[in-house]
Amino acid sequence: MRILLCGDFSGRGMRELDDPASLATRPVLNIDIDNVDEVIARFAPALSLDCEGSTLPIEFGSLDDFHPDSLFNQLELFKRLRELRRRLQDPTQFKQASAEFYGDQNESEDDTLHRLMGTTQEDDPSATAAQETASGIDALLHRLIAPHIVSSQRSEQAQFISAIDRSIAGLMRRILHDPRFQAMESLWRSVHLLVSRLELDDTLQLFVFDVTRTELETTATESRLEQSGLWTALVDRQQDAAGGPGWSMVFTLEAFDASESAVMTLASLASISAAAGAPLIASAASSLYGCGELQSATDHHDWQSPDPDSNPHWHALRKSPLAAWIGLVTPRLLLRLPYGKASDPLDCFEFEEIADTDPDIPLLWAHSCVACALLAGISIQDSGSLMAIDEQREIDDLPAWIHEMNGEKRLYPCAETWLSDRAADWLMSQGLMVLASRRDRPVVQLLRWQSIAEPATQLAGIS
Q1: CA 302 vs CA 291, 297, 305: distances in Å
Q2: Which of 53, 264, 418, 425 is 20 to 30 A from 409, comparing alpha carbons?
Q3: Residue 30 has what DSSP assignment?
Q4: Residues 329, 291: contact at Cβ < 8 Å?
Q5: Which residues contact 234 (CB under 8 A, 6 or more apart)?
């Protein structure tokens, strides 16, 4: 039996490199614990992050490349910061740098930082009249370090080194918490969760297909869906030798709300999945049920279902025959602990990913449908089919993060928020599958397998 994951695994969508014309010939790759890094290298995911007005390119060739130790060793910006720290740590070089730093009491902070980095204003094009638009590494280093330097005070060596250390930590947090970096890390750590937990073999196989959200949306506009490139890739090319359907379940690592574009995209992808003999499962955006930030939500009475007059496409989809082939899940699943001394320390430098005790922080979350993919895979490996899928509804051994709030240490919910029974029941009444966190241990439970259909209906294609 075969499970398919669809997502922007290469990051092309985040770099605006969408190419719907190539969908028909794009590979669908088999992945397991032994070849996950090989598949990552083949997809060659890459990002361009904004950092203090400059562009910070990052490429990934393995899962380890998402780790701060690897980022610290590989990225040029960190290499420059390490070199600057080395110069300041050397008593001989620090003396010279310190003398330069205080050589001219009227010197600007720009001149000071450029000298400490071994450059001059004349050498650096970022020091021209167009400095604000420059993207050189020296200018970027200046913008990173400047907030930590007190130029009016003759500081000790430790203060300079501390400024570099704070700059390194701040830059690392900025990278790890950038929405694009988190989206990419989430995709690949979700894949790793599945390949490490499931016993993948000839009986159960996991496949990944690289497709951007824009490419999915473009497919939804095709006048004849069965002639689209996505149909060719996921239906025509995946039929078994007897011409039967090629997938057991299809998961798209995207979140959908009730907007017309989202509903049309969801419906078209579900049509393709159903043609391949499999239900489609995705994540429900919290805005679908009128919630902003689910992590900080405290009262489900403020939530509301999509208005029929404002969202007719959503309500039409729920009442259509296609609805039985669609499952939407909420909330999201915690993928890893924050890096830090007490949770997951680094090898290269001391680092606390979470700088305070505020619970509303950018943790790394998986799309909620990943939990369903794991449960479906466990059902298949245990029974050889999906017929007993209702018996698989609990995931244990998840990241257990203890955070302090109001002086009290508490277990953070593994599924984004603590849901009351009433809140969970209300979400299920809206056609959603719900992940509930246990308060006593790092476990989540899928409360019920169901489709989005109204009235409530079991998912099609899993009997």
Answers
A1: 8, 9, 10
A2: 425
A3: E
A4: no
A5: 4, 28, 209, 246, 247, 250, 272, 273, 276
Q: Return d(Cα 306, Cα 315) in angstroms, integer.
A: 8
| Spatial distance between the Cα atoms of 56 and 50, rounded to a whole number of angstroms | 6
Give per-residue pLDDT as tens, 165-223.
Answer: 888 998 999 999 999 999 999 999 999 999 999 999 989 999 999 999 999 999 999 99
Cα of first residue to Cα of last residue in the chain, in angstroms, is: 13
Q: Look up residue 37 and give its two tokens.
A: 């890094």
Q: How many helices (H) and strands (E) does the chain have?
A: 14, 15
pLDDT of residue 132: 43
Gap between the Cα atoms of 337 and 352, Å rounded: 11
In sequence order, what DSSP letters do the residues of 376-389 get, joined into one string?
HHHHHHHHSSSTTG
One-character DSSP codes across 228-270: SHHHHHHTGGG--TTS----SEEEEEEEE-SSHHHHHHHHHHH
> DSSP class of residue 87?
H
Query: CA-to-CA distance for 386 and 459, rounded, in angstroms?
Result: 11
Tell me how many degrees the CA angle 436-438-443 measures, rounded to the nearest 5.
Answer: 90
Q: What is the CA radius of gyration of the chain?
A: 25
**Residues of the chain where predicted confidence (pLDDT) is lower than 70:** 95-156, 240-245, 295-300, 356-360, 405-406, 463
Q: Which helix (H) or strand (E) holds 169?
A: helix 157-176
Residue with token string 């009262």:
299
CA nearest 330: which of 233, 454, 417, 202? 417
pTM for the structure as a whole: 0.87
Q: Are 7 and 216 in contact (CB under 8 A)?
A: no
Residue tagged 């004849």 (tokens): 224
What DSSP string describes 2-44?
A: EEEEEE-TT-TGGGT---GGGGGG--EEEE-TTTHHHHHHHH-
Please tell me the distance from the alpha carbon of residue 395 to that of residue 418, in angstroms, as a whole number: 16
* Per-residue model confidence (pLDDT) at position 124: 47
Length of the chain: 463
Tell me how many degrees the CA angle 414-287-416 measures, rounded to the nearest 5. Answer: 10
What is the structure's pLDDT at 104? 44
Contact 389, 449 (CB under 8 A): yes
Over residues 141-177, the pLDDT tens digits come to 656 665 665 554 445 677 778 878 888 998 999 999 9
Number of C-beta neighbours around residue 457 at 10 A: 16
Angle at 74 between CA 68 and CA 79, to 5 degrees: 100
Which strands, in side-by-side order, build the sheet including 433-437? 28-31, 205-210, 2-7, 249-256, 280-284, 326-330, 433-437, 444-446, 394-395
Q: Which amino acid is at 306?
A: P
